[in-house]
Amino acid sequence: MKYCSNLTRNHCVSKNDPQILSCINRILSKDGCDVNPPPFNPLTYIVIDGDALEAVAAIKSGRGLHRKAKSMDIAFGITNGSSNQIQLVELKFNCTTFYRLDKTSFAQKVSGTKSALGTSVNISSSYYIVFKVSTLQQGRRYLFRQNPRLNSNFKAVDINGLFAQFF
């Protein structure tokens, strides 16, 4: 399945709150992407900013910004022509202490993002965790050795792997 701009832009939360949409390069840069320039065309790839999505959801639910739920960093539409899904991505470019990676935290992020997105479009059951090119192998080893149950749903990649998979 590949990135779908229309699905991303026309998702009900994007239409209701367009401020949650962002150029993927802006989010990558903000979160410490080490590939310069990133492989993405900045004018083409618009995604849902997970932090902005959760901020809107917190305000609308009356929780306020001080009680935001955990959320994945990026969400975007993917399609194969006959099936549409939303893909969730967590960015870990600044991760240097891998022992803090745990399945409970990732599960909470997925749950928070799914709740904020609603059920209008199916959400992919595979979630991507993006590491720096230089720390990908270390992150992958630690993540799946310490948390083998993550292996079935979470995929560790670098930014080039994410680009190759979906864009």
How is this structure best described in words?
This protein is an alpha/beta fold and 167 residues long. It has one domain (2-166). It has 7 helices and 7 strands. It has helices spanning 5-10, 12-16, 24-30, 50-60, 103-117, 136-146, 159-166, and strands spanning 2-3, 21-23, 46-49, 74-79, 84-92, 123-131, 154-158. Strands 1, 2, 3, 4, 5, 6 and 7 form a 7-stranded mixed sheet that branches. α4 (50-60) crosses α5 (103-117). The protein starts with a strand and ends with a helix.
Structure characteristics:
167 residues, alpha/beta, seven-stranded mixed β-sheet, 7 helices, 7 strands, 38% helix, globular
How many domains is the backbone divided into?
A: 1
Strand content: 15-25%
State the distance separating the first and last CA atoms. Answer: 9 Å
Order of secondary-structure elements: EHHEHEHEEHEHEH
Q: What structural class do helix, strand and pairing data support?
A: alpha/beta
Q: Measured on Cα atoms, how large is the radius of gyration? A: 15 Å
Q: Outline the biggest β-sheet.
A: 7 strands, mixed
Report the uncertain regions.
none
**Helix share bin:** 25-40%
Summarize the helices and strands and which ones pair or pack:
Elements: E1 2-3, H1 5-10, H2 12-16, E2 21-23, H3 24-30, E3 46-49, H4 50-60, E4 74-79, E5 84-92, H5 103-117, E6 123-131, H6 136-146, E7 154-158, H7 159-166
Parallel strand pairs: 5-6, 6-7
Antiparallel strand pairs: 1-4, 2-3, 3-4, 4-5
Helix pairs in contact: 4-5
